[in-house]
Amino acid sequence: MRCLYSKLIDDPVRLDWFCSTVVTEDWHYQHDAGRDLGEMLVERKRAYPDCADLIEAYATRFLETIPGPVQGTHEVVRRLSAKGVPLYAITNFASLFWRQFRPTDPIFDLFRDVVVSGDEKLAKPDPEIYRLAAQRFGHPPHKMLFVDDNLANITAARVLGWQVHHFVEAAALEQDLLNRGIL
């Protein structure tokens, strides 16, 4: 969120307050999990009427909240694809925002399937999204490697039998993939 709101709020103290109180990760997560955006906006504007324009920017300028790919990750994905490794994704993304974002990043053309939380009304780390993904992807969890930067998501996948990699940087992921004989 800070990528967008740092453009709209000059005062660092107010920016911190806004991102920790008004348009928060927990609030955003509700939309990722399938909650109606219009309902969320009305509710939030009612609670913070002095911030109505900033709250509206969440809906109209969402793509500006995304900082871009993490350095090195696209290269790893391309190498995996070139090697014939089947690629799948589970993403916490609101349906509307995914439809806006997806065309901006052709790397997802390399994926056979993407489970989108907003479409499914399930979001990581809910165990049901991993079960759904395993079913859709057609592979048992122990045969797949789940990569995520969120430890709660990693823990949930591990409990369900997925192989996991807690993502911190592309170089560490690449080394793990080499160690597993995947790259």
TrEMBL record:
Gene3D superfamilies: HAD superfamily/HAD-like (3.40.50.1000). Keywords: Hydrolase. One of its GO terms (molecular function) is hydrolase activity. NCBIfam families: HAD-SF-IA-v1, HAD-SF-IA-v3. This is HAD-IA family hydrolase.
